[in-house]
Write a structure and sequence with these properties.
alpha+beta; two-stranded antiparallel ribbon; 5 helices
Length: 107
């Protein structure tokens, strides 16, 4: 919900009844891609509740297993297929190979 233009924020606040303190927080909110720490996929979560409204960033960290399965380059696909063919069970293979340290080539 971060807005760089206070007039735009005032328009939004008028439509959905945002109090002044919330408008101040929105104007000063550090965007997720400017926050320090690990890289992740982020989105802003807003739940309007008269007793306890909630607003903030939600972070989606991907597990090593998901990264192993979802990489789609031809090279990774072929490597995964070869590794998993040798596994007794695909699920156990994904768990084992996704946690295995990867060698990084340098030139």
């Amino acid at each position: 919900m971060r807005q760089n233009d206070r007039a735009d924020l005032d328009d939004i606040a008028r439509d959905i009844a945002i109090p002044e303190i919330t408008k101040h927080t929105i104007m000063n909110y550090t965007l997720p891609d400017h926050q320090a720490g690990a890289k992740y996929s982020a989105f802003t979560y807003l739940h309007v509740d008269s007793n306890r409204p909630i607003c903030g960033s939600a972070y989606n960290y991907t597990s090593p297993e998901m990264l192993y399965c979802s990489s789609s380059s031809g090279e990774h696909f072929e490597k995964r297929a070869k590794e998993l063919r040798g596994a007794k069970n695909v699920t156990e293979g994904i768990l084992a190979f996704s946690r295995k340290p990867q060698l990084v080539e340098t030139t």
